[in-house]
């Protein structure tokens, strides 16, 4: 049974950086497209980045474009999210999610994803 586990969250000041990791266990990650989602209190879950199996295709929402970078190391069964220039509005629980897919672009809709991690809290505050 595939499990996804996020780590790397924490408290950071505005303008700071964090790197989140999404590690797969129970199966290899390389057959999955991976998406990153976040949910702030009182708000709907937002999909903001995704990456194809090889890493050759990535997608970003406007809210994070130019600040966040998604990457993957299939040999380590890990997908990374480098977050720079963090803002208070980035505060949320961050989730990674996976969907088995062969080719094509990746989507940012939560309903497209099959496997979900438990989430990691990111708080941006001075």
Structure notes:
The protein has 126 residues and is mostly beta strands. Helices cover 0% and strands 48% of the residues. The chain is built from no helices and eleven strands. It has strands spanning 3-7, 10-12, 18-25, 32-39, 46-51, 58-60, 68-73, 78-83, 92-100, 115-116, 120-124. Strands 2, 4, 5, 6, 9, 10 and 11 form a seven-stranded mixed beta sheet that branches. It is globular, with a radius of gyration of 13 Å. The termini are far apart.
Features:
126 residues; mainly beta; seven-stranded mixed beta sheet; four-stranded antiparallel beta sheet; 0% helix; 48% strand; globular
Q: What does the average pLDDT come to? A: 95
- List unreliable stretches of 5+ residues: none
What structural class is derived from the secondary structure elements?
Answer: mainly beta
The portion of residues forming beta strands comes to over 45%
Report the sheet with the most strands, covering strand number, pairing sense and barrel closure: 7 strands, mixed
Please trace the helix and strand order, writing H or E for each element: EEEEEEEEEEE
Radius of gyration: 13 Å
Query: What is the approximate shape?
Result: globular
Helix amount: under 10%
Number of strands: 11
Oligomer: single chain
Ends distance: 40 Å
Number of helices: 0
């Amino acid at each position: 049974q595939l499990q996804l586990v996020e780590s790397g969250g924490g408290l950071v000041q505005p303008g700071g950086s964090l790197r989140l990791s999404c590690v797969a266990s129970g199966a290899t990650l390389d057959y999955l497209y991976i998406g990153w989602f976040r949910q702030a209190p009182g708000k709907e879950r937002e999909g903001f980045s995704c990456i194809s199996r090889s890493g050759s295709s990535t997608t970003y929402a406007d809210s994070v474009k130019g600040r966040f970078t998604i990457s993957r190391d299939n040999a380590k069964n890990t997908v990374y999210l480098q977050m720079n220039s963090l803002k208070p509005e980035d505060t949320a629980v961050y989730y990674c999610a996976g969907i088995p897919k062969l080719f094509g672009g990746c989507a940012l809709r939560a309903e497209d994803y099959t496997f979900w991690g438990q989430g990691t809290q990111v708080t941006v505050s001075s």
